[in-house]
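Tutorial, part two.
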Amino acid sequence: MIICGAFVCIHGTSYAQADNNFFDVTKAGVKNDGSEDSKDKIIQLLGTHKKLYFPKGNYLVNGQIEFEGNNIFFKGDDSSTTKFIQKKNYSNIIIFKGSNCSFRNIGFVQTGYGDESKMFESYGSGICILRGNNNIIENCSFTGCGDAKASNVKSENNAVKSSAGVYISGGKDNLVTKCKFTNSIMGVNVDDYQNFKIGDARRFAVSNNDIKSNLFTDCNKGVVIDFGGADGGKDLAGGTISDNVFEKKALGDKAILLALFNNTDSVIINNNNFKGGFNDAIGVIKGSRNVRISNNNIDNAYSGITLYSSGFYNRKILIANNTITNSAYTAIALHSSGQIEISGNKLTNNKTAISLSNYADSVKIKQNLIDKINTSGIALNNVVNVDISDNELYFTNSNSSNGIIVDGAIKNDLNIVNNHFSAQSSAAGASARQFSASAVAAPKNFNAIKVISKDKGKIKNLNSIVSKNTFEGMKGEQQLRQ
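Running the prediction step on this input gives:
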């Protein structure tokens, strides 16, 4: 065993040669009844054992279990019965630099407010990985990780400290799977900073970290991926957030937040379920690129998917085949973003289904089903180069609804082609939606397409831009109102 600063540096056999037997830590005097601090004894055991087994019980950890090394394995009985408990401290429970390590079947619990004099010295996470590759965190639980008083604390070099269940700071091919995150500031945070020492804001490569099949309950943010700064960070590549469940009882922040600063490879958000009061189920900011958001189910969020600029355009983003229902504000919103495709989504009973503003540029909206329109199906305000084609838009009996509304400045091309509008919900069925002059009348203030833009006079031939659309149950003036 070699001591390297605050770390125990472990040098030994390769992963393939590691001992197959786990060492029971209680045989070395580690208490599992919560009666005394286990930190120092666990660190000492890492000098002689690479596989540690923690029988069920409560292991008190005052401070951090810190180590550096590869092929280290922690295993408990079950995350509900084997628990690492940290009280009144802002530090991580485990922090390490290493690869090919695993943590399984352990619960991590942080309780109480910490020693404010130590707020700049630590991150406040359950597990913190510094520049590690191919690590696995599986079947663990994280409760109360982080602290509202420590979540956005800035260190002396003005770097924001992280406060999460799992914090990955630099590294690739790490996997967080089948874990539960409850009442934490963040569930999982991935970035390319290494702020373990004050003043050290170096960046490290981050790529292909996967967050899969986890449950996030009442976390302020579920998953945050923050790559670099305005200079683009370093070697910023892809990763996957898939098959997770995000639950929020009260109105809160974002379930998933991406701030990617021109990442070089795709980040995929796929097949996740979102339930409850998120301000944004998915938020994308700061010049993020190469993002695919697909096959997610979002219900009862304030906003479903939102792209913000924050001074940098988001580009090359696909939003496809998602189901978004009952959004109090907007199902999909784009602000100052370009080269975006919104296709194949099912958007039902949202106040506004799709909103584009602040010079959203080069956007294709196609083959979406927009049902039970409340205020607007598609709202455009100050847009550039927008194609809206082959969508189906169905209304409720609201007295004031617009299928597509065009407001603000119109720059370059705007095409509204081959869309279908109906004055009743798609749930009525095709046979029930056969209208005639004496049949069901569309509400008075109901408009399929409404153009109120101050730039409408610049459009030479509006009828050629708005063409080949079909309408059910509405009069001519309600099909296109100017």
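The chain has two domains: 1-226, 329-482. In part three we will examine how such features are distributed along the chain.
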